[in-house]
Amino acid sequence: MRFLPAGDLAVCVELGEEISVEVNTRVRALEFLIQQKGLTGVVETVPAYSSLLVYYDPRAVGFEPLCAAIAELVPQATTAVLPPPRTVELPCCYDDPELGFDLAAAAERLELARDDLVRLHAGADYLVYFIGFTPGLPYMTGMPERINIPRLDTPRTKTPPGSVGIGGIQCCIYSVESPGGFWILGRTPVPLYDPTASEPTLLRPGDRVRFRQIDRAEFDSIGAAVAARAYRPVIA
Amino acid sequence: MIRILDAGPQTTVQDLGRTGQMRYGIPPSGPVDRFAFVLANRLVGNADTAAALECTLIGPRFEIASAGTIAVTGADMPVTVNGQRAAGWRTIAVKAGDIVKLGPARTGVRSYVGVAGGLDVPLVLGSRSTYLRGRVGGVEGRALRKGDELRLLPSRPVKPRHVEPRAIPDYTGEPTVRAVLGPQADRFTAEGLEALFGGRYEVLPQSDRMGSRLRGPRIAHARGHDIVSDGIALGSIQVPGDGQPIVLLVDRQSTGGYTKAATICSCDIWRVGQARPGQSLRFHQIGVDEAHRLFREADRALEAAVREEIA
Most buried among A49, B92, B183, B281, using CB within 10 Å? Predict the structure, then answer.
């Protein structure tokens, strides 16, 4: 464990240097404990793969006392303290080349039938390590090793929001239109980020994500319900 | 109410920013120059949290709908009311129908227009700040444009006030900004860190509210420029593979995978935000305790900056 100063308003609490469910669970548990105990001077926390960035108010707490208070919580930061995770179901349309525009090429590259690639991708359980980079974008684990694939040689400059892609060992869902190097297998009609909603982001650190295969007709009808504010995401 | 007649290149509504949303990938936003922003509010008798305008390089032209008080701070944009020159860093009494104009900045980048009562735009996630990339806050999540009308919250009568001349910052020259080593200082060579704290870094035109891009002596990595992504603090000096620093500001991405050599102290962020493209900066290394002492000193300077005028 290391406490790395990040200026005068934040400290990076590093619990490891690797990407693993084990270390990330400790990061999220530490965040939960800090919030639950209402640690003096803590303003905001940002979990990542293996570290927690803790923003603090130096009027309320000094660097050393804050680090000491956090260090005391670290041994208790295990999966046991975390509330049960939510499972968020994301409908995803794979079988339309307009939406999953890299599906055929990715299947060929992986030497898989298209249906098998879809089955492997949609059949997995994903865990949201953390949210970052753009509003509501999940960093997830859980993708089957068989569909690990090098990123695109030439990243595209624009990827539509909702695009579900794979690259390296990662599965990515674009929350806003962005450049990117992922192979796009499909698209979810459920917005991960809706700036006009009262809660703009859908996913939270620690959520489980399951994809549900839908056809184009259902994609369009869910899209229409979303636009009419009549859609409620399936969260268990 | 104020009515925008000409918006300028990037005028946005900002308050002190959003808290608690970075874990969902939404940055705090808020003013790049918090010092000038807070003074604009204090001059007109507002709480520090009231919403004001942040204007970039060229100010807006707007019409006042009812009598009130405004104050302009930050970058030196010449202010006129109905064509008559008015001073910055002090209260300006305005009446219905007055046309206020802020010209191109002679020094600095960002100026702030505080309006008695504060701008009344909806609170989004607890803040009125505009986050342009995320299209939230302010007016429809965007920069202001011609024809926008901004309502004001109720205000009390405002006594004439000004900022002490010695408290008005100088945005010219080559500012030195103080920074604390880390979080990934161990990823750089000794020569790389010497370059960072010894060299001059020029501000590039590609700078914005997300970050200031700089160019100067290469900050060499000891081992790889990629890290396992982590949270990005305000003022992080991020150094990608090309060895050139990017200082991350209020609209920064919440997490990222590049090494960060050092982090600029909060009391010096405004020096970065007010440095124009072509201007240079120097970095000076300090410890966390010293940074906290400077933080308290900056707070006290702010407390002492505004003077009420004796009629």
Answer: B183
For residue A201, the chain B residues in CB contact (below 8 A) are 24-26
The dihedral of CA A108, A109, A114, A116: what is its sign? positive
Q: Which residues of A touch B260 (CB under 8 A)?
A: 6
User: Residues A41, A44, A47, CA angle at the centre, nearest 5°?
Assistant: 125
DSSP class of A149: B
Q: Where are the alpha helices (DSSP H) in A38-136?
A: 63-73, 103-110, 114-123
**Predicted ipTM > 0.90:** yes
Query: Above pLDDT 70, what percent of chain B?
Result: 100
Q: Do A10 and B233 touch (CB under 8 A)?
A: yes
pLDDT at B311: 59
- Between chains, do B134 and A201 touch, taking CB under 8 Å as contact? no
pTM of the model: 0.95
Distance CA B105, CA B102 (A): 8
